[in-house]
Amino acid sequence: MRVLAILIDTGRELLYRKTILVYFGVVTLVLLSFALLLRTDVVDGAIASMSVAGLEASSSRGAFRLGEGGQETGLAGLSAQDFVRYVQLGAAFTLYPLAILMSIFATASLVPRMLEKGAIDLLLSKPIGRPALFASRYLGALLVATANLLYLTCGLGAILALKTGVWNGGFIWSGLVMSLYFACLLAFVVLAGVLLRSTTVSVMLTAVVFFTSLMVRLPHANQDWPLLISGRIARFVTVGIVETLFHALPRTYDFVQAAVSLIRHEGGLQWGAVFGSALSGAGALGLAIIYFSRRDY
Amino acid sequence: MARGGVVALKGLDLVVPRGQTFGLLGPNGAGKTTLVKLLLGIAFPTRGTASVLGRPIGDVPTRRLVGYLPENHRYPAHLTGEQVLHHFGRLSGLRRPERGRRVDALLKRVRMDEWRSVRVHKYSKGMMQRLGMAQAILNEPDLLILDEPTDGVDPIGRREIRDLLLEQKARGATIFLNSHLLSEVERLCDRVAILNEGALLREGSVADLTRPQAAWQIEVRSAAPEAIEAACRRVPGAALVEGRVQVQGDAAALNALIDALRAQQVEILAVTPRRDSLEDVFVRVLHEGEAA
Hints:
The structure holds two protein chains of two kinds. Chain A has helices at residues 2-17, 19-37, 70-73, 80-107, 110-114, 120-124, 130-164, 169-196, 199-221, 232-248, 252-264, 271-294; strands spanning 38-43, 46-52, 55-60, 63-66.
């Protein structure tokens, strides 16, 4: 019941901050647009005709066009399956980053606010252990962000399934993979929050984690780059730093690749990258819990 | 207990018997809040031991039996008064039907029923304190720890909080009270301890600390100061202090002073044994501590 109390409170606080509501509103608008404006006619698994807000759609050399000429060119045998995947990839590339960004902004204040004088004293005086208190706060934020991602994937997946008869389970899985990515980032957010007690600095550090994880992937993937450094010690140190950062931070690029692969049903998921990131997130969360549990407030 | 080179508490040895109302007094920075935080596991001691309700400090299940109102408490701004009580009730392990009953009763008891659906960031200081008191006693605790419960509260609010505390006392709860308002402490507490710079200067029952001394105070009708001073000169230990005649000594000294005053035609209105207020004791003990 105590964990439930923290989960409920965390959910209420996130809703109160409105950031999550903005994302929820944007996704709802997208879902309503697809539900109300998209008309499709599927024959033998191919899109025979399609209109968006009354404008006929056509496809030529992989590009969609709305309006004049649609009837003449047609949809060039576009399969319903491909259409669904294109739409879901588009949604993933635009709405997943928005979801992650909004969730980071919304959750970055959770730990610093909990640690404010007068608030933390009360919480710590209640019969709930510090690790459970902190982990519940983290879990509450993660659940809200996951619910938002699932709202997008399940909602859009279901609308497209109703319109085309194609259900793409990979889109739901891609949402869950992005939720795991958010879980890793959130661990760094709460670690920064408990160490520095500042929402702004937490967001900034998370941005640093995000960009660093993208930057170190390039030298990591290119085996020859250390040869550019002439000094042996400098080369050893630089390679050490790059490889440490690559393995210690969530692997943003690999998560994006994993989401795309799941939506397109192409290739296998890189479990090594996912588990490596999960491990780095678990490490950051563990450090945050240990620090929180030992500190005087 | 030391942090960052500052010793917050040193050599403190204190026992608060169950069922008593105990006041902890001291100037700012004396270590009162630190002591409370140690007892509740909010901060950790560098050395020494303590127990709460027979269990070592930091024991999580014991906190189910403890109610706490911190100084300058801050409730989540997104919650209404009613939600605050439900939230902390859940955290205290209170289940729904019982929790709902207590929340309703307490909101009425602290006159916050009309404000139950209003978010707490719109509450005044006094309303926050009343809600804080309700939160602290929601789980009907065996031990109630209050840090400046009447801070920023108007006289009527103070009286309400005092009445609530008396109810808790009558219920058998042990109350541990940190307060600057010595008059409140004097009215409520059975025992007090005076703390300064982390050290215990004095501890005892309020009755013992404010026990009447071998001294008397005589109230006189306005008379010429020369007449009173002439009478005082005839009795060792007598003096005119802030318009009142005081004398140190036994009944013989008192009677000698009365005779001297009457000889000067001074009209006597009242004679009372001199008793220190808790504030007098507090100031004296602190001065003695500083002198030592």
